């Protein structure tokens, strides 16, 4: 599989309120998509852009330079405004986000920090507006005359660092205007692939070994009182007699079978599983991280770059949650309730205990097409 890695100006576009438009009138929505494509395709070609893929109601496009990207975005908005001026056309509005960064195309995977940032700043743009990062602004300010509004220290969803962004054209909006919107409804999730990357045999036997060792250790610890009593009373015969009685427990085949089955099932349920999910629309990454994780009893406990750790804290057990989050909670029990997510572009990897991963995937399957 070929890998295409490059530094590029990355553009995301999005039709404002398209989910509602589609819900109200599918024919109108399809007409708007066709009109958008006819207006945008020509401009992208003129500015040497490359449409990497359609993202539902928008586009993911890369350009060889930031100047070409910003000029193209400006002309896109002008073209759509002119289109909307006609009473014969179905009016629509788009947002555009542009970032300068690395992008990696690996088959259907679209990866790289540049893609992650670009997808997060697009919802910050106003309808009919453009949002660019500081990297883009610094690159084009000497070439293009921009009437831009600077906003510092902006939080981007699931991104560690804060970013300085510029909104075009400059507006006198309220400060909270740049909070990210969420036009992507959960029912829009589309998945290209869902792959189980778990080494099942290795994961199973790792837990199986631990459980067997714990059971054996418990058995040994249980024998200690008999030997101590025998030593203190100097009655080794009696101690050995009781030991013999305990070992005869293993002669009970139904009990042995039950214990074995319990260990096997427990090893399976407690093993760590890994799934790779590739979304058709990169914006669905935020949807699953927000809606399908946080809304089902998980809380972010650690985040580093593109890795997030979630702790399972069901609301119905809110009294126990205080103990779960405390330093007194056994680490091995906390680890059992940790869900780790690594995201990159349109792809995420979920790792956690079998129960948590399968439960999340079951919820996900209810929502994707």
Q: Could you give a short account of the major beta sheet?
A: 8 strands, mixed
CATH architecture of the largest domain: 2-Layer Sandwich
- The proportion of residues forming helix, as a percent range, comes to 40-55%
In round numbers, the mean pLDDT is: 79
What would you say this structure looks like, in words?
The structure is a single chain. With 369 residues, the protein is of the alpha+beta class. It has twelve helices and 14 strands. It has helices spanning 18-24, 26-46, 66-84, 113-121, 134-140, 200-233, 236-247, 253-270, 284-290, 318-325, 331-336, 354-365, and strands at residues 3-15, 50-55, 58-63, 94-106, 109-111, 130-133, 149-154, 163-168, 191-196, 272-279, 298-304, 307-312, 338-344, 347-353. Strands 1, 2, 3, 4, 5, 6, 7 and 8 form an eight-stranded mixed β-sheet that branches. A six-stranded antiparallel β-sheet has the order 9-10-14-13-12-11. α1 (18-24) runs antiparallel to α2 (26-46), α6 packs antiparallel against α7 and α6 crosses α8. The two termini are 27 Å apart. Residues 173-187 have low confidence and may be disordered.
Give the SSE map:
Blueprint: E1 3-15, H1 18-24, H2 26-46, E2 50-55, E3 58-63, H3 66-84, E4 94-106, E5 109-111, H4 113-121, E6 130-133, H5 134-140, E7 149-154, E8 163-168, E9 191-196, H6 200-233, H7 236-247, H8 253-270, E10 272-279, H9 284-290, E11 298-304, E12 307-312, H10 318-325, H11 331-336, E13 338-344, E14 347-353, H12 354-365
Parallel strand pairs: 4-6
Antiparallel strand pairs: 1-3, 1-4, 2-3, 4-5, 6-8, 7-8, 9-10, 10-14, 11-12, 12-13, 13-14
């Amino acid at each position: 599989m070929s890998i295409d890695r490059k530094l590029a100006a990355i553009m995301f576009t999005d039709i404002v309120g398209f989910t509602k438009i589609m819900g109200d009138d599918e024919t109108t929505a399809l007409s708007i998509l066709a009109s958008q494509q006819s207006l945008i395709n020509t401009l992208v070609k003129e500015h040497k852009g490359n449409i990497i893929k359609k993202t539902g109601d928008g586009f993911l496009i890369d350009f060889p330079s930031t100047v070409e990207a910003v000029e193209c975005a400006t002309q896109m908005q002008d073209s759509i405004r002119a289109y909307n001026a006609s009473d014969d056309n179905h009016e629509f509005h788009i947002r555009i986000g542009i970032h300068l960064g690395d992008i990696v195309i690996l088959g259907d995977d679209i990866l790289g920090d540049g893609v992650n940032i670009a997808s997060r700043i697009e919802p910050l743009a106003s309808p009919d507006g453009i949002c660019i990062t500081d990297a883009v602004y610094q690159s084009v300010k000497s070439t293009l005359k921009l009437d831009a509004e600077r906003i510092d220290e902006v939080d981007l969803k699931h991104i560690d660092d804060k970013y300085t962004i510029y909104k075009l054209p400059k507006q006198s909006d309220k400060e909270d205007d740049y909070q990210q919107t969420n036009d992507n409804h959960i029912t829009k999730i589309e998945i290209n692939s869902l792959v189980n990357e778990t080494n099942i045999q290795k994961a199973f036997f790792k837990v199986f070994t631990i459980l067997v060792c714990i059971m054996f250790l418990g058995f040994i610890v249980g024998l200690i009182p008999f030997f101590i009593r025998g030593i203190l009373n100097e009655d080794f015969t009696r101690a050995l007699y009781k030991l013999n009685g305990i070992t005869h427990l293993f002669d009970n085949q139904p009990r042995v079978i039950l214990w074995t089955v319990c260990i096997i099932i427990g090893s399976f349920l407690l093993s760590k599983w890994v799934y790779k999910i590739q979304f058709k629309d990169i914006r669905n990454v935020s949807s699953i991280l927000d809606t399908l994780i946080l809304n089902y009893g998980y809380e972010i406990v650690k985040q580093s770059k593109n890795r997030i750790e979630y702790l399972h804290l069901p609301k119905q057990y809110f009294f126990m949650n205080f103990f779960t989050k405390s330093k007194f909670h056994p680490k091995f029990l906390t680890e059992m309730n940790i869900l780790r997510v690594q995201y990159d572009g349109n792809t995420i990897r979920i790792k956690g205990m079998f129960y948590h991963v399968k439960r999340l995937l079951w919820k996900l399957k209810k929502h994707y097409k």
